[in-house]
Amino acid sequence: MDNANQFPIEKGICRDIVNANKIKVSSDIDRLREKIIFPYNEGAKILSEQTLRTKFPRAYAYLLTKKSSFKNKR
Questions:
Q1: Which structural domain range is residue 11 located in?
Q2: pLDDT band for position 3 (50/70/90)?
Q3: Contact 8/58 with Cβ under 8 angstroms?
Q4: Which residues contact 21 (CB under 8 A, 6 or more apart)?
Q5: d(Cα 44, Cα 46) in Å, to the nearest integer?
Q6: pTM for the whole thing?
Q7: Nearest alpha carbon to residue 35 among 3, 68, 8, 70
Q8: Is residue 74 pLDDT above 70, yes or no?
Q9: How many domains does the chain divide into?
Q10: What is each CA distance from 65 to 18, 58, 71, in whole angstroms?
Q11: What distance, in Å, lies between the first and last C-alpha atoms of the chain?
C-alpha cells in the first residue's frame, strides 16, 4: 500500500478479523489477520456520529473520505 493512502486510526475502534474462507491450516491465521473499523459499542449498537467525531476523530475523518464512494455503490 502506498503511504499516501494510509490513515492513522485510533486503536480503540479497530478489531482484528480473519477471512475464514482463506484458512487452509492454522498457521494461516496470523498471516491473514487484518484490521477493520468496528464502529459499535459493547452492546453491538452502532456508535452515533457525534461519538465517532469526538472519541475517534481520525477514524471519523477516514470514514468521511469513503462516504461518497459508498453512496455511489447503492
A1: 3-73
A2: low
A3: yes
A4: none
A5: 6
A6: 0.74
A7: 8
A8: no
A9: 1
A10: 25, 11, 12
A11: 26
Rounded Cα distance between 62 and 68, Å, is: 12
Query: By percentage, how much of the chain surpasses pLDDT 70?
Result: 86
Q: What angle do CA 31, 33, 38 make, to 5 degrees?
A: 170
List for the chain the helix, strand, coil content (%; round to 5). 50, 15, 35
63-72 — which CB contacts under 8 Å span 24+ positions? 63/37, 63/39, 65/7
Q: By C-alpha distance, which of 41, 40, 33, 38 is closest to 16?
A: 33
Q: Which three cell numbers stand for residue 52?
A: 465517532
